[in-house]
């Protein structure tokens, strides 16, 4: 039971890493009129899940977890660098660093010591810190991946609810609908070979680049 409780803590919106302050380009997509309705938000988030989260982030998270399990600092550094290099815009790269640094500061206070050889990887991306904490807290990889998917989806839907804007009930309906595809995406992600680990979301990259100079904004990305 305790590993499950630790997972809930790791993916909680109350974890002080600032996840709620990022929209990953969604704020500009809404400003530009690309996303105006609940249906369009659902389509946007489904595309990002299918072509980035499940093909890049989740496979990398699994590799970071295995690197921690085998105390392989070289692989931890390689995959954290790979993920960082896969971010197409300055804002998305800044988000990786900022969330990584925030979690790296928090983990020692939660009794998760960070080996010196891991420090650079954890500063680069939050996923490295999540992988280390999950390994130390004996959270199984499948549970970690499910938790990460849910956390990403919940944060993204809540950003859309604020920005479109939508009602809270519509937000819960989106969570209910989109969560139905998560099990298949997780299975796909965990079977992805190294050569296929990549994201392909050009609309998100364009929106993120435009967001860098958006005049009025609520979110950091």
TrEMBL record:
Residue ranges of coiled coil: none
Compartment(s) where it occurs, according to its Swiss-Prot or TrEMBL record: Cytoplasm
Keyword terms, alphabetized: Chaperone, Cytoplasm, Nickel insertion
A Pfam family assignment: UreF
Gene3D superfamilies the UniProt entry points to: Urease accessory protein UreF
GO molecular function term, any single one: nickel cation binding
A GO CC term assigned to this protein in UniProt: cytoplasm
Family statement drawn from the similarity comment of this UniProt entry: Belongs to the UreF family.
Subunit organization: UreD, UreF and UreG form a complex that acts as a GTP-hydrolysis-dependent molecular chaperone, activating the urease apoprotein by helping to assemble the nickel containing metallocenter of UreC. The UreE protein probably delivers the nickel.
Function: Required for maturation of urease via the functional incorporation of the urease nickel metallocenter.
Protein name: Urease accessory protein UreF
